[in-house]
Amino acid sequence: MSVPRVYLDTNVFIAAFEMTGAHSDHAWWILKGIEAGTIIGVTSEITLAEVLVKPMERDDEALADAYEGMIAPAPYFETVSVGRDVLTTAARLRAGRHSLRLPDAIHVASAQIAQCSVFITQDERIALPDDLRRLGVTPFTLDDILGQP
């Protein structure tokens, strides 16, 4: 059986690093699943630009460093460059749905190009194509990805 390829939207990282309580724990479970090789995690380089804003506003170098360390290629984690292929795919997505914001279109295009089957996000406004299954950050996210009860 192949290891599922799962796209992580920016809000997964923010939940893990900046929230407290159960929601943060659930986001960490997903990240730990990637670290263990249970799933392959994928995100866009644009994620780094999005997560660094608040730490930079607050001059929080430790948090910025943590994000930079996490959002980097690793054995079971990939970052998709925002290159011409991603940008043209994002434009095609936006042409079909004008309400899709460019950053979100870049995320969706990156997920498609990386051949992800699951898109993890808390943002219900992001329009996803039929080939991407949306999952939120919950206690059951890993089980849902792996098809376990």
Automatic annotation (TrEMBL):
Domain PIN: 6-127
Gene3D superfamilies hit by this protein: 5'-nuclease
Name this protein carries in UniProt: PilT protein
Transmembrane annotation, as ranges: none
